[in-house]
Amino acid sequence: MIEEFSKGRIQAMKTKTLTIQLNDEQLPILPVEPEAHLSFTTHADGNELELTGNRTGLLLLAKAALGMAETIREDGFHIHLDDLYGINAEGKSILIRKEEQSKP
């Protein structure tokens, strides 16, 4: 990306808006998206996580992450996207949880 920018190939950024609905506890309300696909691979060294998915699956992940960032719950609540939405055929677990940590 830096190479492309230095060569003048990057165009002006476009703004996109992601809208989510939240319930009374500020948890995301995520509609069922039957065509969604999302999966992940961890590489051998364990320091890299690769997420792959179609547009619908990646948008579902983005909405779930944004919704969890906004939740007011502090009891360890989490979302299992794979269980709720059947978004990967590999049976991998995709869990999203908010955890606030103070800076060292």
Question: Can you put this structure into words, describing what you see?
Answer:
The structure is a single chain. The chain is α+β, with helices and mostly antiparallel strands. Helix content is 25%, strand content 19%. The protein contains three helices and six strands. The strands form three sheets. Strands 1-2 form a two-stranded antiparallel sheet. It has a two-stranded antiparallel ribbon with strand order 3-4. A two-stranded antiparallel sheet has the order 5-6. A hairpin with a 6-residue loop joins strand 3 and strand 4 (49-53). The relative contact order is 0.19.
Q: Topology of this structure?
A:
Layout: H1 2-6, E1 21-22, E2 28-29, E3 38-42, E4 49-53, H2 55-70, E5 78-80, H3 81-85, E6 95-97
Antiparallel strand pairs: 1-2, 3-4, 5-6
Tell me about the biggest sheet?
Answer: 2 strands, antiparallel
Q: Which shape, going by the Cα principal axes?
A: globular
Helix content: 25-40%
List the total number of helices. Answer: 3
The rounded distance between the terminal residues' Cα atoms is 32 Å
Placed side by side, the strands forming the largest sheet appear as: 1-2
Instruction: Tell me the number of strands.
Output: 6
Q: Indicate the low-confidence ranges by residue numbers.
A: none
Q: What is the H/E order?
A: HEEEEHEHE
Q: Indicate the proportion of strand residues.
A: 15-25%
Tell me the Rg in angstroms.
Answer: 17 Å
**Estimated structural class:** alpha+beta
Mean pLDDT: 79
